[in-house]
Amino acid sequence: MSVTITHEDIEELCMGSVFLATGGGGDPYIGQLLVTEALKKHGPVTLFPLENLPDESLVVAVGEVGAPSISLEHLPIGNECLEVVDRLQEWMGKPITHLVSFEVGGANSVIPLLAAAAKGIPLIDGDGMARALPEAQMMTFAIEGVKPSPAVAVDYSGGAVYFDVRDAELYERQIRNLSMAMGGMVFTAEHPMNSEEARRAIIPGTISFALQLGRTLKRHSGNAGQIEAPLRELFEASDYGQFKHLYTGKVVDINRKTVGGFDVGEAILESTIDDSPPLRLAIKNEFLLAEMGDRVVASVPDLITMVDHETSAPINAERVHYGQRVSVFGIGCPPHYRSEKALKVVEPRAFGFDIDYVPIEDL
């Protein structure tokens, strides 16, 4: 069944997408304002079910690439995602029939809605991660063999760069370097897919799930302990895996800087409920690894999410600060990331951690 998103749904969609973003994906606040106004002007967007995709389709992924902290200081105008779709369509010489988000995370969950509403192009209910991850080769598009280009990137001033590169890791290096040169963040239209590729590579139902998750968070807002049961029920009835409470404590140290187009660092938490050892969270745009002492309690590609302990509002990594009281949850990733070919690019070793991936249910 298709889901229709109105301007009244955007706040809840953003809440759910920030939770799934595991700290990354870009702060959605400005995107939330832009998309809310776009839906008021152009009307609601009905998400297109992946299973209904026509055989003769051209699907393109749209979103932001760069260090999420940049989005807090370098604000978009709102037409960047429209410009990038127009430029790619003109370059390819054929109409883009459907759009898709490359990650259901933070701002990148709502930016494609802006393009879909303003241009009248259907938006598929799905994405290429079912969470947020920092690099292009980690998308299910790339894992399933979809080429990243032709692709176009547009910066905040409207300048554009065109990409013709067939390797996802090379594309990642090029687009990351470009984002740094163009102010730290660019908007891209990339990974054009035919129908067969899209059906194989897109993780279905993730945008509507983010909306459902946001509604659950809003309905049960309050102390983080109050949301555990409804969240566990929601996740364990989905394609995601086991839901675990990992930690409740205070942020006692945060070390974060922009390096190579990523927000990189770590956060240290001390427990406020028992004598557990401190929790260390490693950050590369997203929360990638959670350790208590020398014990790993969760790692990428499983999800590690932080929420405000008093309100249950999910927290982006760039908004973590000293003294916050938070709760941290771990969720098993969908099956797409448990395959051998996926783990080659999303296991802890792919991020420089000298450990094997152990599913969260086995830790």
From TrEMBL:
Residues 8-163 form the S-Me-THD N-terminal domain. This is DUF917 domain-containing protein. InterPro entries: S-Me-THD-like_C, S-Me-THD_C_sf, S-Me-THD_N, S-Me-THD_N_sf. It comes from the Bacteria. Residues 168-360 form the S-Me-THD-like C-terminal domain. It comes from Congregibacter brevis. It holds the Pfam family S-Me-THD_N.
